[in-house]
Design brief:
Blueprint lengths: L3 H6 L5 H9 L2 E6 L5 H9 L4 E3 L3 E2 L5 E2 L2 E2 L7 E2 L2 H10 L2 E7 L2 E6 H10 L2 E5 L2 H10 L4 E6 L3 H9 L5 H23 L4 E5 L3 H13 L6 H19 L3
Parallel strand pairs: 1-9, 1-10, 2-9, 3-6, 10-11
Antiparallel strand pairs: 3-8, 4-5, 7-8
């Protein structure tokens, strides 16, 4: 088997994939755990304006809450051999190794959005955003945030079965969030959206989408709020 990590480290999409991404309006959501990426993404999909960029992954479908994942819905499920072929042919737009598996969005998936005349929509991490931005500066990047440190902590805690489990994992969550937020604040291309109430957050994301990535005074205001949240995260590390 080919060295997957080496193929990914040296990877570049083929020319067709790059041209297709540049021709397809694309919105990417990123945010710390508990910011509501999945919920906001689902609400945006309900408008009918977007095509959900389904990620391809090299693993078998799993059961979630007793329901088996469906190929082409939750993920496209590929073999390692298929992933290697895609990597060699430049058939991913963005690809990353995760715990020995290959996760990525294929050129074909972007083509589906383009052919349907819809806006491509996905959620990625800050490293994924950087990969997309290197290919197309027109990609719209939206960083989602909770309204405060305390509210974020409350939302994350709800994901754990016990308070003890939450406390054990919390330092890692906090460190990861600070790392992503710091990196996002260093980049000039993020729109920051505060997810205080879901309707307002969804509306803000749609407004950013339809403003063709133009920045306004409220973007500066939200960036200041994001910096305040980072300060709170760093203060609680002490």
């Amino acid at each position: 088997m080919e060295d997957i990590d080496k193929l990914i480290a040296e990877y570049r999409p083929n020319d067709e994939g790059v041209a297709l991404l540049r021709a397809t309006k694309t919105v990417l959501l990123v945010g710390i755990t508990g910011a509501g990426k999945n919920t906001i993404r689902s609400e945006m999909m309900k408008t009918g304006e977007f095509h959900d960029l389904v990620t391809s992954v090299t693993r078998e479908p799993r059961y979630n809450n007793g329901v088996l994942e469906r190929d082409g819905v939750e993920y496209h499920f590929l073999t390692q051999e298929q992933a290697v072929e895609n990597l060699k042919a430049g058939e991913y737009v963005e690809v990353s190794p995760v715990h020995g598996r290959v996760y990525g969005v294929t050129v074909e998936e972007v083509r589906r959005a383009y052919d349907a005349g819809k806006i491509a929509l996905s959620d990625v991490d800050v490293l994924g955003i950087e990969k997309y931005k290197k290919l197309s500066d027109d990609v719209i990047a939206i960083f989602l945030l909770p309204p405060s440190y305390e509210e974020w902590q409350r939302r994350v805690q709800q994901r754990y079965e016990s308070h003890e489990a939450f406390l054990e994992d919390w330092p890692n969550r906090r460190e990861s969030a600070a790392r992503e937020l710091r990196r996002a604040l260093e980049a000039p291309y993020y729109h920051f959206v505060i997810n205080d109430t879901l309707p307002e957050a969804v509306s803000a994301c749609l407004q950013i989408t339809h403003s063709d990535d133009k920045f306004h005074r409220k973007d500066d205001e939200k960036r200041l709020l994001a910096r305040d949240l980072l300060d709170d995260l760093l203060a609680h590390e002490q």
